[in-house]
Amino acid sequence: MATLYLVGTPIGNLADITYRAVQTLQSVDLIACEDTRVTQKLCQHYEIHTPLKSYHDHNKEKETAHLIELLQQGNDIALVSDAGLPLISDPGYELVVAAREAQLRVETVPGPNAGLTALMASGLPSFTYTFLGFLPRKDKEKVEVLKQRMYEDSTLIIYESPYRVKDSLQAIARVDDERQVALGRELTKRFEQIETGTPKTLLQMIERDDIRLKGEFVILIQGAAPEADNAWFEDLTIHEHVDYYCEQGQKPKAAIKQVAKDRQMKTGEVYDIYHEV
Prior knowledge:
Blueprint (H helix, E strand, L loop, with lengths): L2 E5 L11 H9 L2 E4 L2 H10 L6 E3 L5 H13 L4 E3 L13 H9 L3 E5 L4 H9 L6 E6 L4 H11 L5 E6 L4 H11 L5 E5 L7 E5 L1 H9 L9 E5 L16 H10 L4 H12 L3 H8 L3
Parallel strand pairs: 1-4, 1-5, 2-3, 2-4, 6-7
Antiparallel strand pairs: 7-10, 8-9, 8-10
């Protein structure tokens, strides 16, 4: 049976690729990639002569069906992103879903990940973390997401472009200007930089050019301290608390369960109060 391989590629330093990844890319019939120019550099470096096919957000609807057809014909295909792991804030989700629905074999070939690479060296808690990908571009929506997520006891991992890093730091400061935040850039490259401090401190470093706005960024936000967990909802009734989560898109059952967790109550107790049983 043909196989769809999900192959991790270097996030900066070309040496950060596994033997298995190189062998896989050399042996498959086709490599589906975001940008053929980027993947071609990797292929040239490792003498990989496999044909490349563009697969990105703008053509994935059309190309997903074509790639599934090729797999059904017996062709092995590797899916890669420009850097790191495919599907993780990169194209590929629709292709994997379609391959599984068609009962095709899907195999992973792990590799580097920018978020976890930055987390390791940030000095922020790494036992529990939540990956958010990219924040919304609009300021109001960005702050709303941060308000909801920054009250969780979990380090948040966010990807950001150099053009919006300052805006995102300012949004974080509006929610909690004392929270510890880390910025990672140029990861695994010669000028790798990971700085940790308050949003204000990091913004000052950017203004002084101590942190250059160059390359893709990882933003890490320390989770809320346990004593601060209840601060945001302490003035809400249980009805209002449940309704808040429903307005965020959760179904009532999930919202009730989350409220019970927030308030350290039994789910049944919250259910009875909310439904006035």
